[in-house]
UniProtKB/TrEMBL annotation, chain A:
This is ABC-type quaternary amine transporter. The keyword Transport applies. It comes from Arthrobacter mobilis. It comes from the Bacteria. It is an enzyme of class 7 (translocase). One of its GO terms (molecular function) is ATP hydrolysis activity. Keywords: ATP-binding, Nucleotide-binding, Transport.
UniProtKB/TrEMBL annotation, chain B:
GO terms for cellular component: plasma membrane. It comes from Arthrobacter mobilis. Residues 65-254 form the ABC transmembrane type-1 domain. PANTHER family: INNER MEMBRANE ABC TRANSPORTER PERMEASE PROTEIN YDCV. It is found in: Cell inner membrane; Cell membrane. This is ABC transporter permease. GO terms for biological process: transmembrane transport.
């Protein structure tokens, strides 16, 4: 279905943006370029600066320094109502005294769109979100999911330069959330506009995004596709935030491409790291690891570390092991069903992997155990 | 926790007693207004409507009544506009401590004894030659009425979801449109009740009005006060009964319409 709402995407340039409050820095020198038509997600824990960054782009908050450009045009001194961006809020923010159709007409009235054209656009918007025929209802007569669809329709009906979404699915239950995720993805493909999405749910980010920007402490830790973030995390924080991982931490010896580290009597090696840090954290994903009852069961060239089995969980498609590493931290291993080995909680075992796998990162938190 | 029957009935008796003490002095006026004698005797020996007749036929009473209604309507409009604007401004002011102090200042007319205010207003109006003028009555009463609007609109704003205003901005509405189309409908119950309080405040104001009246312009309460000190004519009871009826109806309508809105 071709929609009247379809249009070319918009480029958003966030350059060295800082937002400082009296006692804290909410956004700290953030730079990010959103490509035309791209679906980008700002992902991070609460208080990491992702929502503040969105509010700065939307114009709800004034920035302390830096600049924001939309299609090459500087907007950081333009008031919110003149930026021409659509915003969807976590709590819908529908006007309770207006019907669904009146809510959707609101942005068109501000732009003095002719009445006849308004009618077509409203119907088109309602159809896009699957709520044709709901125009005369009041928001309170709709479910949470329906209200959020109306909020989407209202934010898109005036063909905004980009659509900004601040945890739009955060208030919905899991099933509805998953359904609407797919719908947002469909709408994005249908209208081809630039979408900026804020969430703290990494799974949601994986499903929706072309690219993900990971926020932590007011800064962007890394920007990339989900595969890039999962396979080549730039920091321990990113590695942990994007999926499960096992971390071996130890001082790095023999700096250079042929680095190695001594992890409780085991020599660990791995692929050449860009910048070999003093204190290292070797990160391995659950499917890169294997576990065997004895060291002799592992292939010759593998890196091997003795562990204790804490849990062996049968998942149908395979097993998930929770292991206790020599330094007391937890390791997670996923293996296909074919490799079942009968290990039980309390058993001694060996975790092993190919030295072509793993990412060596700087150990940013020295006290933490995961 | 469930109370015993005895506790509950004692509570009802007590509540009834308090209600009686509160209402009785006011209610006494109603039978007084229907007396057939030319004096304020309670309980009245015989009944008649002659004092109501007198009220509606005496041009002095009718003009005082007309003045009161007119002044109160203008005061309600003015105080609602000023008070609402002040509440919105105070809420948006980011320097919270300054906003709080200014709000206390705005509410001062409730706390300051009316007689002190009256002397001040009298002195100023004397110089400005505003004694006994319509504008003078409106201004003086507005000062007294604004605090009631500020209190009720501030409460309404506290319950209003400011994110709706943010959403309106994102949809292209400037501040003024946002206020008219989104904020105002949201706080309307508070604005309406503020307006009603402002009307009633002006309509039964007597202390200030006695100071600023003139032989050519006086309001109903002033006329009543003069009447009770001069000739204790039961017309005053008729007037009081009607004031009571009018204010009760206005407040009741206001409360009911607010409750309906809330239940929407």
């Amino acid at each position: 279905m071709s929609s009247q709402l379809a249009g070319a995407g918009t480029r958003i340039d966030i350059q060295n943006v800082t937002k400082r409050y009296a006692k804290s820095v909410a956004v700290d020198d953030v730079s990010l370029t959103v490509e035309p038509g791209e679906f980008i997600t700002l992902l991070g824990p609460s208080g990491s600066g992702k929502t503040t960054t969105l509010n700065l782009v939307a114009g709800f908050t004034d920035l302390t320094s830096g600049s924001i450009e939309i299609d090459g045009q500087r907007v950081d001194n333009v008031p919110a109502h003149k930026r021409g961006l659509g915003v969807v809020f976590q709590h819908y923010a529908l006007f309770p005294h207006m019907t669904v159709a009146e809510n959707i007409a609101f942005p068109l009235q501000q732009r003095r769109t002719p009445k006849a054209e308004q009618k077509t656009l409203i119907e088109d918007a309602l159809r896009t979100v699957g709520l044709s025929g709901y125009g005369d209802r009041y928001p309170r007569q709709l479910s949470g999911g329906q209200q959020q669809r109306v909020a989407f329709a209202r934010a898109m009906v005036f063909s905004p330069r980009a659509l900004l979404m601040d945890e739009p699915l955060g208030a919905l239950d899991k099933n509805l959330r998953e359904k609407l995720q797919l719908e947002i993805k469909r709408i994005h493909q249908e209208v081809g506009r630039t979408f900026v999405f804020v969430t703290h749910d990494q799974e949601e980010a994986l499903i929706l995004s072309d690219r993900i920007a990971i926020f932590n402490n007011g800064r962007i830790e890394q920007v990339g596709t989900s595969a890039e973030l999962y396979e080549r995390p730039a920091s321990l924080f990113v590695a942990r935030f994007m999926g499960e991982s096992t971390v071996f931490r130890a001082p790095v010896e023999a700096a250079g491409p042929d680095w190695s580290m001594d992890f409780h009597g085991t020599r660990l090696r791995g692929p050449a790291a860009g910048q070999v840090p003093g204190r290292g954290a070797l990160v391995l994903r659950p499917e890169q690891l294997r576990v065997a009852p004895r060291a002799g069961d592992a292939p010759g060239g593998a890196v091997k570390v003795p562990v204790k089995v804490v849990q062996n969980i049968y998942l149908g498609s395979g097993h998930k092991y929770e292991l206790r590493l020599p330094d007391g931290s937890t390791g997670i291993v996923r293996t296909p069903l074919a490799e079942s080995n009968g290990l039980r909680p309390g058993d001694d075992a060996v975790v092993y992997w190919s030295d072509r796998d793993g990412v060596l990162l700087e150990d940013s938190d020295l006290v933490s155990t995961t | 926790m469930k109370h015993s029957v005895l506790t509950r009935s004692l509570l009802w008796v007590y509540a009834g007693l308090v209600a009686f003490v509160l209402i009785a002095p006011t209610a006494v006026v109603i039978p007084l207004s229907f007396t057939d004698k030319a004096s304020l005797n309670f309980p009245p020996a015989g009944w008649s409507l002659r004092w109501y007749e007198n009220f509606f036929q005496d041009p002095a009473w009718m003009s005082a009544f007309g003045n009161s209604v007119l002044v109160a309507v203008v005061v309600a409009a003015l105080a609602t506009a000023v008070g609402t604007a002040a509440s919105v401004g105070l809420q948006k002011w980011t320097r919270r401590r300054a906003a709080k102090s200014l709000q206390a200042l705005l509410l001062a007319p409730i706390v300051v004894p009316a007689i002190i205010l009256a002397i001040g207003v009298y002195a100023i109006f004397l110089q400005a030659q505003m004694l006994g003028t319509f504008a003078g009555f409106v201004l003086a009463h507005t000062v007294l009425a604004v605090p009631f609007v500020v209190v009720s609109v501030t409460a309404a704003l506290a319950g209003f979801d400011q994110r709706l205003a943010t959403a309106a901005a994102s949809l292209g509405a400037n501040r003024w449109t946002t206020f008219l189309k989104v904020t105002l409908p949201g706080i309307l119950p508070g604005v309406v009740s503020g307006a009603l309080f402002a009307f009633v405040t002006s309509f039964d104001e007597v202390v200030l009005s006695i100071f600023i009246k003139s032989p050519y312009l006086e309001t109903l309460p002033v006329k009543m006060y003069a009447s009770v000190t001069r000739d204790t004519d039961p017309t005053i009871a008729a007037a009081a009964t009607m004031i009571m009826l009018l204010t009760t109806v206005i407040i009741a309508v206001g409360l009911l319409s607010m409750r309906r809105r809330k239940n929407v």
